[in-house]
Amino acid sequence: MIGFSTSLSTIEEVNAMKDWVDVPQFFLQIKGERDASFVWEWTDRTGIETCLISELDDDTCARFPNMKWMKRMSDITYIAVEELSGIILSCDELNQWEELVKTNNEIIAQLTTMYIPQELKVKEIENLNGVDGILISGSEEDKVGIKNYDELNDFLDQIDIEY
């Protein structure tokens, strides 16, 4: 899964990247308060049907019944399956996550959950309860089209060996 920030990318850049890489799914990160026309333009012109949101109101979300909405753990005040399809959490939210799993296990089981590792060590992700995947990012591009993944190589090699 690869994500694109609507505040850092243009629709044209997102579409170019989508044509260039082969991954199972893409998502848009929509920051700040946006209205339905903004969401519609981005999703219509990119064909992306999953959005990571922070401040969209319920009315805007309701206008897109087929959209998959994801939130960061820190942005969640309550959980309802019909409104959310995924959660992204970081290492400092693990205690909050464990409590949520205990009290909402049936709902959590229906969500896609991604974890952002702090130190890029396999040991950190081995015993995570109810987590479907990890979210990692490399450095900025060195040049257009050239990205350095040296900082991720050891971690990716460990995952390849362990799993």
Question: Can you tell me about this structure?
Answer:
This protein is α/β, with parallel strands linked by helices. It folds into two domains: 1-66, no CATH class; 87-163, no CATH class. 35% of the residues lie in helices and 21% in strands. The chain has seven helices and nine strands, in the order βαβαβαββααβαβββα. It has helices at residues 11-20, 36-46, 58-62, 94-103, 105-108, 122-125, 150-162; strands at residues 2-5, 26-30, 50-53, 68-72, 86-90, 112-116, 133-134, 141-143, 146-147. Strands 1-2-3-4-5-6-7 form a seven-stranded parallel sheet, covered by helices on one side. The chain has a two-stranded antiparallel sheet with strand order 8-9. Helix 2 links the parallel strand 2 (26-30) and strand 3 (50-53).
**In order across it, which strands form the biggest sheet?**
1-2-3-4-5-6-7
Poorly predicted sequence stretches spanning 5 or more consecutive residues: none
Q: How many separate domains make up the residues? A: 2
Q: How is the biggest beta sheet arranged?
A: 7 strands, parallel
The SS-based structural class is alpha/beta
User: How many helical elements?
Assistant: 7
Number of strands: 9
